[in-house]
Amino acid sequence: MGLQDILLSLLREPMSGTELIHFFRGTIHHFWQTDLSQIYRALEALDREGYVRAESMPSSKGPARKEYRLTKKGRTRLAGWLRQKAVVPPHKFEYLAKIFSVTADAHPRKRALELMRSMRGEVIDAVVQLEAIEHLMSATPGFPNDMPANMFYPWLTLHHGLMRRRALLEWIDESIVRIERRSSEADNAGESGCPADLQRMLEDYRAETEPFSQESHRS
Questions:
Q1: In whole angstroms, what is the distance from residue 185 CA to residue 28 CA?
Q2: Which pTM does this prediction carry?
Q3: pLDDT tens-digit readout, 141-163
């Protein structure tokens, strides 16, 4: 499950490695980031295991190119993957880990603002890029709900990425305002005690909720 299955879904129509990578970057990359070497390794594994077949095809622009085609075995695997339950994986966000740990810095307020502002620029760039792609798709007849299936479902994933980044941008802007409004006294007061205070708070919460949790499992 993962990159190989995504590549199988893209290879329902034959593509060269270069075409596949360009298509991947334009449609999938906003929710499944990978690099060139990983894609080629995945293609080689799929070819070796019989899920795709690599064929040398003539090219009008130079040497023959290698084109990948989905095999019957590959279509069976793809169908099985699509029938599996979709799982929302646990998230690991480094930027949240840094904000959580910012009191380890000598100047937490300053460092938090630097983190937020640098991240804000990256998120804005991503929003602009996804909005541009969505604008191109909006020219499709029936946009959005009645577009052809091969446009509508990819648009859903694009719209998910756009909504997620807009929400992140909203959180960043709100957080910057909240941090700027903090007094230096408030930061200094919690510089050493906050982690211990939070730990005690969570322990108290677990102690209060555990009996109810056990009762609900028995019932």
A1: 46
A2: 0.77
A3: 999 999 999 999 999 999 999 99
